[in-house]
Each structure stands twice: as C-alpha cells, then as structure tokens.
Amino acid sequence: MMNLLSTVYKADVLDALNILWKGLVAVFLVILIVFIVVLLLNLISAKSAKYKQAHAGEPTVSDKIKAKWEASSQAREDKKAAKLLEKEAKKQEKLEKKQQDEQDK
Predict the structure, then answer these.
(1) pLDDT category, 91, cuts 50, 70, 90?
(2) Which keywords does the record carry (predicted)?
C-alpha cells in the first residue's frame, strides 16, 4: 500500500512541476515583454526631448497645421463677407432702379 501511494504522489508532483515551469516561463516572458516596451518608450521619449531641444525656436508641425487652418478659415470668412456685400449691393441697385422707375412714371 505504501508503495502505491508513493508512485501516485510522484506522478502528481511531476505533473505539478510540469505546470509550474510552464507558468514561471510565461510570467518571465510577460515581464520581459513589459521591460522591452518600457525601454523602447524611454528611448522614444529621449529622442523626442533631444529633438525638441534642438528645434526649440522653430514652429512644430501642429503649429504649421494650425496656421494653415486659420488662414483657410480666414479666407472662407472673407469670401462669405464678400458675398454678403455683393448681395447687399445688388439689393441696393434694385432698390435704386425701382425708385428711378417710380420717379420716371
């Protein structure tokens, strides 16, 4: 009976050790992946900081885009204002023509 229990326990221990090493390897791989991602992010942020220092006075891409957007929106506003002025001028011409026709009669 004792011999039977010892073999069962050995098999269970071996199964547990098999599961254990797989779990430990998985945890190690996850930690390694997180470490590599953190290293890459640090490298990227360091390069970004160096680039910003080197180009401190220059406008950024987002500044250029904002300036272009503002210029185009100002152009749209100018076009709208010109159209409104044109409509008002046409209305004024029609009104003057109508008054001239009434005076001629």
Answers:
(1) very high
(2) Coiled coil, Membrane, Transmembrane, Transmembrane helix
Name the nearest CA neighbour of 26 among 101, 34, 73, 5.
34
Q: Which residue's entry shows tokens 């039977």?
A: 4
Q: Over the range 27-60, which residues count as b (16 or more CB within 10 Å of their CB) and which as e?
A: eeeeeeeeeeeeeeeeeeeeeeeeeeeeeeeeee
Ranges of beta strands (E only) in the chain are none
Positive/negative CA dihedral, 19, 23, 24, 29: positive
Output b/e per residue, 70-81; b: 16+ Cβ within 10 A. eeeeeeeeeeee
Q: Is the pLDDT of residue 30 over 80?
A: yes
Q: How far apart are CA 80 and CA 83, in angstroms?
A: 5
In this predicted structure, what is the pLDDT of residue 54? Answer: 80
